[in-house]
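Hi all, a correction to my earlier message: I attached the wrong file for ABC transporter ATP-binding protein. Here's the right sequence:
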Amino acid sequence: MNAFETPVLEAKNIDKFFYNPTETQVLKKVSFTIKRGEFVSVVGKSGCGKSTLLYILSTMDTDYRGELSLDGELISGKSSDYLSKLRNEKIGFVFQFHYLLNEFSVLENVMIPGLKLGKYAREELEHRAIEKLRIFDMQDHAKKKANQLSGGQKQRVAIARALINDPLLIMGDEPTGNLDKKNSDIVYNKFKELAADFGQTMLIVTHDPEFAEGTDRIIEMEDGRVIRQ
Ligand SMILES: Nc1ncnc2c1ncn2[C@@H]1O[C@H](COP(=O)(O)OP(=O)(O)OP(=O)(O)O)[C@@H](O)[C@H]1O
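and the right structure:
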């Protein structure tokens, strides 16, 4: 199997239980594969388990049953140090709230995951950060502090930040959830561009039916199960 055929992400029979105070199973035998270059959305009613699933897929929650592979490597059971390194190298995150650091400039914010990875020299990283900001038409704002931007601009910077290490996979939890229609459309169009122009693999949880309809594939969940994909 060559690198392009290796699935980016493979979930097999993922079960998740919470125990407070009684045992509840919130994910039930969730299985699917994300191929390279796919733009996939995860939808379903509130409480069906989308965020719980994303937390597991992103390697942040290791307390589950089943098997998870990233880029052909079985990662279930790996140590948290190992997973944290892998996450930084291979996954870019976009959340509902941008989590930019207000005391830092836009440029510095975009550079942060790159500094953590330690793969690029500072000058190269700055250059990369400008390039990523350019994709989102935010390069002219590079020197501003994050709190000088509008909500939509902050979210565009957050996506640029997610791209800084050229991740294998972008994962998003409601990336347009906190935006008005106009900004939500801008962010959505940027995701479409990333898929079309860069073949970026993306897995995005969304409540927005229009967003989901625009993706290559919709994974629909109900009561902890995948009911359609
Ligand atoms: N820490 C926890 N302890 C116990 N139950 C939890 C915990 N976190 C989530 N749950 C429960 O797990 C189920 C799935 O929650 P989850 O947040 O994954 O749903 P969701 O589909 O992302 O919902 P939303 O669309 O509202 O964000 C819900 O019934 C929720 O109450």
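Sorry for the mix-up. The longest helix spans residues 181-198.
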